[in-house]
Each structure stands twice: as C-alpha cells, then as structure tokens.
Write a structure and sequence with these properties.
Blueprint: H1 2-11, E1 16-22, E2 28-33, H2 36-48, H3 52-59, E3 63-65, H4 68-74, H5 76-85, E4 89-97, E5 100-109, H6 117-171, H7 175-188, H8 193-202, H9 210-216
Antiparallel strand pairs: 1-2, 1-5, 3-4, 4-5
Helix pairs in contact: 2-5, 4-5, 6-7, 6-8, 7-8
Amino acid sequence: MQSLVDNAAELFDATAAGILLVNQSQDLEVVVSTSERSALVGLLQLEAGEGPCVEAFTTGSPVSVQDADEMRRRWPQFAAASQEAGYTSVHSIPLRLRDTVLGSMNLFRETPGALNEDDAIAARALTDVATISILQQRTTEHANLVETQLQHALNSRVAIEQAKGFLAHTHQVDMDTAFTLLRSYARTHQARIADTARDVIARTITIPTPDTAASAGPLGSGKHRP
C-alpha cells in the first residue's frame, strides 16, 4: 500500500496521497500516506465525519473535488482543514470489489482541476489491484486462523479419546462412563476437559472410580494441579 500511494502521487501529479481502510470495528483509519500533511488531513476529516475520502468509501463511487470553493460548499470543516494544509483539490477512489468496499485511495493536489479521463481509469485500475491483494491477504489470514483452530480442536479430541481409553482400562468401565468421569472431574475442578484429559494421560492427576467418588464426596480423591 505504501508503494501504491508513492507511485500514485508521482503518476497522477499529486502533492500527496493516502489510503484509508476500514478496521474490524467498521471505522476508517489512515493506514499509509506520502506525507504527514495528508495523514493529518485524513484524520481531521474522519473526526469531522465528512469529506471526499469518507464519501468515496460510503458510496463506493469516485469523488472528485476540483477547487476550494466546491470543497467549502460540500464539506465546510474538511475544506478548512484542507486549505490549512495547502490542498486545493482532492480525488478519492474507493477500494472496491463488487459490493465490498474496503476504504479509499486519496490524491491531494495544491492546484485546482480534475483528473483527466485516462488518469482516472488508471487510478481505478491501481485501486482494483490493491483491493484484490488486500482481500487475498485477509482470506489467507482467515484460512490460517481456521486451520490453526481446527488443528487445536483435533489435538484436543485426540487427548480426550486417549484419556477415555485410559480411564476405561484402569477403571474397568465402558467408554461412555469414562467420558462422564472425565467431564465431571473437569467441571468439578473448573478446568477445561481437554486440559484434564492431558493431565490424565500424563498421570499428573488421578480421577477416582465411580464408587470411590461417591464415598469421598464431590471432589473425590483426585488431585489437580493449581
């Protein structure tokens, strides 16, 4: 994204460029910029809740502001912040793929005027590529997270099955009863069943037999690590 704004500023004769992306809380935030000035304007427009960058995100359509007068008519607070930073025109292109809008790329200029048609098409092409790249990265991250969670669940299930087999053998009970003993012990000691299963396998705790547990009270004679 930093390469994108650096190159976009040069290609389209912009004084500065920046990208806003929506975060997990569905709030827009400045993620990259070519200068502190463009980052500052981005933050100011977000605080004001107005501006071409925000509008490009909310509408999913490019927004071009050619001069300071147009800015003042449409977004007075943004216009004041933009004038203070020295920008006269702003061109905002949404980062969009079909119905998904991730944010916007924003080109700031110190001179008035609109992007010509060729530049507008090129800018949109760059943001399309950036959008696809971001979505692919997020899809990969999500897939990795799901894979990690699945592997953790599988490891937990293996530990539970091993503990059930161990208890069924040592306590001379069937597998359903072994699982009930394991689950009851975990609940009594406010421990996760997978952790309890691992402790059973490692023989760091002893789960009492049903008869022993009944005579010894709710905690039985087992010892659990703190």
